[in-house]
Design a protein that fits this description.
- It is a single chain.
- The protein is α+β, with helices and mostly antiparallel strands and 211 residues long.
- The protein contains 3 helices and 8 strands, in the order H-H-H-E-E-E-E-E-E-E-E.
- The protein folds into 2 domains: 66 residues, no CATH class; 87 residues, Immunoglobulin-like (Sandwich), CATH 2.60.40.
- The strands form 2 sheets. Strands 3, 4, 6, 7 and 8 form a 5-stranded antiparallel sheet that branches. A 3-stranded antiparallel sheet has the order 1-2-5, with no helix packed on it.
- Helix 2 runs antiparallel to helix 3.
- It is elongated.
Length: 211
């Protein structure tokens, strides 16, 4: 009976601390990755609860590192990419991003093209985890830039092709239809270039973006 009471007590402690653990996960904090400050005290009072909570914390943080999110808040944006190379012929643009910084597995890359070097309303091209893009846009004159982002971070600072940004002519005879205005990407409107998934977790009138 004594063992049963002890096990029940451990279970109660586990439920309480697991709830607090989830509260930190959902509400967020300023720290990086999920942490439970009372683990040392719990270890002395209930080793089994300590072991269970440690496994939960490690599992949650491992998932966060793999997906590029911070369970307790947001993570720092990745470092800017090293460079962007753009070539073109016959209306086809070929892009190659060089990124020598240390990145986690959940990194994503974006490229943007615009008819002006100000990138006031750029068209966003999502590369996923790839650092190469080959796209047929016809004989247009476009400026290009690229950046990276984690799902749970702000985007890195964009890096343009050329300094100052240099126009690239598609070449060929096909021009295609006239470009429609950019409508943006993620939670960001078309006028907010360099946003990737968006800088806000929710747009003004759109769907929720998980971050």
């Amino acid at each position: 009976m004594t063992c049963g009471n002890a096990c029940f007590s451990d279970l109660v402690f586990f439920c309480i601390w697991f709830y607090q653990c989830l509260s930190v996960f959902i509400c967020g904090s300023n720290g990086f990755m999920l942490k439970i400050g009372q683990l040392a005290q719990i270890k002395g009072e209930s080793p089994y609860v300590y072991e269970a909570l440690t496994q939960i914390v490690n599992a949650v943080n491992s998932l966060g590192r793999a997906t590029g999110v911070d369970p307790s808040g947001t993570i720092a944006p990745p470092a800017p990419i090293g460079s962007l190379s753009v070539t073109s012929a016959d209306g086809i643009f070929d892009l190659a991003i060089t990124d020598n910084s240390s990145v986690h597995r959940g990194i994503f890359y974006f490229a943007e093209s615009d008819v002006t070097p100000a990138f006031s309303r750029p068209r966003v091209h999502f590369l996923g985890s790839s650092r190469n893009l080959r796209v047929a846009l016809g004989n247009q004159t476009l400026y290009w830039r690229a950046y990276s982002q984690y799902l749970g971070s702000d985007p890195s600072a964009p890096v343009a092709f050329g300094t100052p940004p240099t126009a690239v002519i598609g070449g060929g005879t096909a021009t295609g239809p006239q470009l429609q205005p950019s409508t943006g990407s993620g939670t960001a409107p078309g006028t907010a270039g360099g946003s990737g998934f968006g800088r806000l977790t929710e747009s003004v009138s759109g769907p929720l973006i998980l971050r």
